[in-house]
Amino acid sequence: METKYSSRQIITLTVLRVVIGWHFLYEGMFKYIGGVWSSRSFLLNSTGPLAPLFKMWAQSDKAIHYIDVLNIWGLILIGLCLFLGLFERPAKLLGIILLSLYYFAYPPFSSAAAEFYADGNYWIVDRNLIEIASLLVLASFPTSYRTGLDRFMTNYPVRGFFNNITGGRLKNKLIPKK
Fold this sequence. Notes:
This protein is mostly helical. It has one domain (7-174). The protein is built from 11 helices and no strands. The protein starts with 6 loop residues before the first helix and ends with a helix.
């Protein structure tokens, strides 16, 4: 059974996808263009359940180099994919994973969070959790096959691969029968 979205639903979900994509892209480009950004202090000062692991990584220059490169390019590529509606499903999954790492580095329920107030950081719910929830909503209601570059991908030879990463939902909708 095919789910039909109204025009308003498609527009709203697309705007949400594009806005989140822009946020990821901007954060990645800001770190890349600045040239001096490093995740070392973020990891060294983490307070969450993964803090021991993050602090261990922060002690290694080699690990910091890889983490910085992965973080910057992860943000840029996830942002571009969401913004353009290209490889939407894996971009959402990777975005959720990345945001979860940020969330658990500085969870808003830790003892350190209880001592101070920061804009966008409230008890349990913070910006990262809101964006994770938004990506989960977008994962439940995909739009890129209608309003993104994913709609053009079904006509290329990689469509078997593409259908695998999109859960096969495009196979019967957009690929013409032979």
